[in-house]
Amino acid sequence: MMHFTSLPIYPEIFLLLMASVVTLLGTGASAARQKTTYVVTQISLGVLALMHLSELQLAQTVYGMQRMVVIDPLGHLLALSATLATMITMGFSRPYLASRDLLKGEFLSLAMFSLLGISVMVSANNFLVVYVGLELMSLSLYALTALRRDHAVSTEAAMKYFILGALASGFLLYGLSMMYGATGTLDIPNVFEALHKGTVNQQVLTFGLVFIVSGLAFKLGLAPFHMWVPDVYQGAPTAVTLLISGAPKLAAFGITFRILVEALSGQALDWQQMLIVLSVVSMTLGNLAAIVQSNLKRLLAYSAIAQLGFMLLGFTPTVVDMKTVLAANGYSSALFYIVTYVLTTLGTFGLIMVLSRNGFESEEVSDLAGLGKRSPWIAGVMALFMFSLAGIPPLVGFYAKFAVLQALVSTGNHGYIVLAVVAVLLSLIGAYYYLRIVKTMFFDEPADTTPIRGEVGATVLLALNGLAALGFGLLPDGLMSVCRDAVLKAINT
User: Fold this and answer.
1) Rounded Cα–Cα distance for residues 284 and 31 (Å)
2) Burial class (CB in 10 A: 0-12, 13-18, 19+), 214
3) Within 13 Å of residue 76, how many CA atoms lie on the same side as its CB?
4) Which of 38, 58, 417, 453 is the most buried (most CB within 10 A)?
5) Is-cis flag, bond preceding 237, omega within 30?
6) Is 367 helix (H, G, I), strand (E, B) or coil?
């Protein structure tokens, strides 16, 4: 079913209104009013999630705003996942920020505006809409990184993020402008049609594609465009690190899909080769660099580079010998991978915040020493997340990796089978540093033997997050079928 209206963007309009309300509520508010602002934020996000869920169940494709936005199951699935990720981030962050006098209106409102940017990006049907959403999300995250204005490391991280982010946005914008020059249109479906009619300037198109892939690689944090990731993860307050490492990754997947798959599938053989190189370089550099890290947030930053490199493999076995039979298989495995990776990352950084306390940041790997004795269940949950990231069954990370590898191997193409073997070998390197963290928790002696008592809400959230990582690993079919249906609907409309 397909129809045209301007009403489909009502979740985004609601989010904009509530973000404005939260901004007004949080301006110069007292401690009591800050609590009210937090509650209003969480309720607003809960209502927004229900809106996206109800639309996802309708499974309609609707165009609005003169066809500049497309509201389809893929957009709703990504927006729903991003909304839930932001809600979970808020839940973990509240005690951490409150103890550091950072739970202010600007954190809540900027988080909501970054979510609005994500919602706009994943529903874009026009290059300008993609760019507007990207800048709204990015500028909010730059400001959040510098939330601790009196902290030199945070300010330095924000400056690096801003400068490199501006450079990457320039790359993407330049690539999109060249795409406009080559095809004469900014609408994603019209670019697709122009490519298939052959009415394009091929040389300009190829140059534009290189700049677009470079810009997308930066937003995903892929090597060699990864320079900002370790510094920003380490320098930002842990609550902001969690915000950056969660929902924006879903947005990056969304715009990669909208631009490369929906607009530029005619150039798939070109961009698939670029993505294969980016993927292998990211997995190699991310896993090798993570081995030598002693700072936990920096280790997880390099881990993210490797994980997103693995996810990118799902985009590569989709057009083989000029046939697109396996396209939905590859894209849906990549979508499943990114959704479940964000779920695991939320729990990992959430646990770091639970372990942190006033005046103490639990940021070093050595800070986890003896955690198994001090708090066996928190150590057990952390072990679940580490095993999932390492790809050990029966956790969700194993199934996510298996789905991507299966997409590669099922092509029957010798090159893709070799690529799958390389990915497995590089994942084995990654397993080393994940298991090192588990070893530190259960076999090293603690420097501090006092029991850990986390805030009740955050610890309950942590338990639910751990159960989700286990549950989706044991029963992945439900989420996988939702991902597959969303991708099929997006490809076919």
Assistant:
1) 47
2) buried
3) 27
4) 38
5) no
6) helix
* DSSP state at residue 187: B
Residue showing tokens 């959040």: 144
Question: Residue 493's CB: how many other CB atoms inside 10 A?
Answer: 16
Round to whole Å and give the CA distance between 471 and 395: 8
Structure tokens at 443: 């076999």
How far apart CA 438 and CA 484 sit, in angstroms, is 34
* The two structure tokens encoding residue 112: 């909501």
Count Cβ atoms below 10 Å from residue 399 Cβ, excluding itself.
26
The answer to whether the predicted template modeling score (pTM) of the entire model surpasses 0.70 is yes
Q: What is the pLDDT of residue 3?
A: 41
Q: Which residues is 4 bridged to in the sheet?
A: 63
Type of residue numbered 326: L
Task: Render the burial of 23-47: b for 16+ CB within 10 Å, e for the rest.
Answer: bebbeeeeeeebeebbebbbebbee
Give the pLDDT score at 5. 42
Per the CB < 8 A criterion, the answer to whether 389 and 358 are in contact is no
Residue type, 1: M
Please say if the pLDDT value at position 17 is more than 50: yes
